[in-house]
Every structure is written in C-alpha cells, then in structure tokens.
Design a protein that fits this description.
By secondary structure, the chain is α+β, with helices and mostly antiparallel strands. The chain is about 35% helix and about 20% strand. The strands form four sheets. A five-stranded antiparallel beta sheet has the order 9-8-7-6-10, with no helix packed on it. A five-stranded antiparallel beta sheet has the order 14-13-12-11-15, with no helix packed on it. Strands 3-5-4 form a three-stranded antiparallel beta sheet. The longest helix is centred in the middle third of the chain and has 37 residues. The protein is flat, with a radius of gyration of 42 Å. The N and C termini lie far apart (about 85 Å).
Length: about 375
C-alpha cells in the first residue's frame, strides 16, 4: 500500500498526532524519541541506534541518571520560579504545566519514582517549602536571590522604623495623659451629718458655694450674700501679664496632641508630587532609551509642566526630554552642595553632612533661606546634587 497523500485526512491526522503529546509508555528517553503506538515503540527498541545508546548507558548508568535528574530538577524549579514566584501552589498543577512541553525530561528517567518523592526531596534540599494536606502536596518556592533578600531586608527595616515611630508617639500621648491626670487635685470625700435644729424658731441656712457643704445652724443666712459680695471685686481683677510672679499656663495633653497634628499637616501640605528643578544632577533609570543612557547622569536644563524636563547628558552632551519617572535623584559625597526638592525646605540649598543608611535619609545643613545654618534630616528622594 502506498504512502498517503499529503493533504489526505490520514496524513493530516498523523501530523496532528505528531505535534501533540503522546503516551509516556512509548517514549524513549535515551534516544529522546516519542513513538505513536506499541508497535512503533517495539520497532524502535529493536533498532540499531537504540541498541547503541543502551551500550553507552550500560557503561555508566548513574552518569546518565544524574544528568536527567539534574535537567528535570532545574527545569521544574525554573518553571515554578517564573510562573508562580513565591506563591503556595499544588505540586500537580506545576507538573502538568511542565509536561505540556513536548521536549521535557520524563520522570521515569530520573532518580525519583513519583512526584511525591520529588516534592519531598525539594523540601529536604531547602529549595521549596512543602506541606501535605488532604488535597495533596503543596509547594512554595524559596527565593534566595541576593537582590531579593536585600530588598526584603530594606522593607522590614522600613516597617520596623514605622512601628518604632508609632510606639514613640503612643508613649508620648500616654505620658501627656498621665501628666494631665496627675495635675488635678483629688476630690475630698464629703462628710454627711444629721440635720438638727437647736430651737424651733431658729432658721436653717444653706451655703451653696464651692465647698457644697451644709452651713452651721448658728451661721446667719446673710453670710452667703456677704461672702459673695466680698469675692466679686477680687474675681473681676485681671492679672498683669508682665508680672513675673504669674505662672505660665500649662498646656493640656489634648492641646499638645492637637499641636503635633497641626505640625504634621503643615509638613504634608508642603509636599508635592513633582520635584524636578533646574540645575540639579539626576540619573536616568529608564531602559527605553537603550544602554547608552541607562544609569548615566545628566543635568536638568529646563523644567516643563512640573513633571517633564529637558536634560543634558554629562558624558555625551546629548539633550533629552524625559519625564520625572524616568530619572532619580543623585546623592553626592559628604561635603558637597545639594538642593532640597520637596518638603518644608523646598528650593533651599544645603551642604551634605552625612548619610543615615538605616533611616534612608541624610543630614543636611541649610545654606540659604530663613533657616540658614539649621541642620535637618531629609529623605533620599527629597534632595539631589547641585549642578
């Protein structure tokens, strides 16, 4: 019987089958050949090329097994890292995506007999976090990249710093409340006595003043009016503010908290979402312009619409129009002049005194404006080198 025509249904069916995945039992890992059926696999096993590969493998079988195991492990872990990252996922989901590649290394040629054995091995080697559930085994990739570890440490340091600030603020508020409560005098406990009259003709008078206690029976009723008239002129007098003996009014805890909140609002209102200014040095961080300009320094020549700028490259002298998201600030060496770009000291020239790596800020001595000579701490992104 002759070979089927190229456009015949049988030939098209054969090509479709050849492109797709076939049964694992009819795959030869040594020759990397996929057979379509049992008869084809039997013919391949009797072929001269297959027998030659078996002779090579019989000389050092562990070498070939280790090679296939290493290939399977590296491809599987790479797929897990790229596709799922550090998410927790079922091992069978990852394996199904892995075997969707027709040229993948089959597990029956590795040192692991089952997917469960391979999952346990990943956990023992510390490549992944594995845990068994009623639904099966779950794996989670452990990212040990130095850059990722450094970024996680920075985020943890920032979070710890924010928590420390919140704790200090809470302790300060608690101290103010304690001071406010401690300033008050404890109220005296009133003593209640029985109301008696020595004679029926005598009148009983009540003193409704600050003491809120019952007046004696022998005290006349006009005593209340006399004391009130006597206290009236003294209460109307106003204290002289120039008198050094006058005590300064003590602020309550609530007033101090309100002042702190107002200061925070003033600082936040002084910040803007744009920071570009002329005559500062910036660094190009976008990769869209190619490697020629990436990570290269430039001088801002002109600012357009607050968010765009015309910069001149220091190395080549080329002029580019960039957005502020495409550049970042430059931190010079201590002793160099900088310009504050954001915050309450915006547009102020200063001198860099030192860098505080743990706080992600720098100490600056202001060199212009009403705050000249003042030393302040400014975040990295709020200042840049002066051109």
């Amino acid at each position: 019987m002759g070979k089927a025509d190229f456009l015949s249904p049988k030939a098209i069916s054969n090509r479709i089958k050849a492109k797709g995945l076939q049964k694992l039992r009819w795959y030869c890992q040594m020759c990397q050949k996929q057979c379509r059926d049992e008869n084809g696999f039997k013919c391949h096993c009797m072929s001269e090329s297959h027998q030659r590969q078996l002779l090579l493998a019989s000389e050092n079988p562990m070498k070939f097994m280790d090679y296939f195991s290493d290939e399977f492990k590296s491809d599987f872990v790479e797929l897990l890292r790229r596709r799922f990252g550090t998410k927790r996922v079922h091992n069978n989901i990852v394996y199904n995506e892995y075997i969707s590649d027709r040229e993948h290394v089959h597990m029956n040629s590795t040192q692991w007999e089952t997917l469960t054995d391979f999952t346990k091995w990943l956990g023992r080697e510390g490549l992944c976090k594995v845990d068994e559930t009623p639904k099966g085994w779950y794996i989670q990739y452990i990212d040990r990249d130095p850059e990722t570890i450094r970024r996680q440490e920075e985020q943890a340091r920032k979070k710890k710093q924010e928590l420390d600030d919140e704790e200090r603020s809470a302790k300060f508020i608690e101290e103010q409340v304690r001071r406010g409560r401690g300033g008050k005098e404890p109220e005296e406990t009133p003593v209640f006595t029985e109301l008696k009259r020595e004679s029926e003709e005598e009148k009983v008078a009540f003193n409704l003043g600050a003491s809120s206690s019952l007046a004696g029976c022998s005290r006349p009723s006009s005593a209340l009016g006399a004391s009130a008239l006597k206290a009236a002129p003294s209460s109307g007098k106003r204290k002289d503010p120039s008198d050094p003996r006058g005590e300064k009014k003590r602020k309550s805890a609530l007033e101090e908290i309100m002042e702190m909140e107002e200061k925070k609002k003033k600082k936040q209102s002084a910040r803007t979402d744009y920071w570009l200014q002329p005559n500062i040095v910036v660094k190009v961080v976008t990769k869209r312009l190619g490697e020629k300009y990436h990570k290269k320094k430039a001088i801002v020549m002109e600012v357009r619409d607050h968010y765009g700028a015309v910069v001149k490259m220091i190395d080549s002298g080329d002029k580019l129009k960039l957005d502020q998201n495409h550049v970042e600030t430059v931190i010079p060496a201590p002793g160099k002049r900088v310009v504050v770009l954001n915050g309450p000291y915006r547009d102020t020239e200063a001198v860099l005194e030192g860098i505080q790596e743990k706080k992600f800020s720098a100490s600056l001595t202001l060199d212009s404006g009403p705050h000249k000579g003042k030393r302040v701490d400014v975040a990295y992104e709020d200042f840049s080198k002066q051109a």
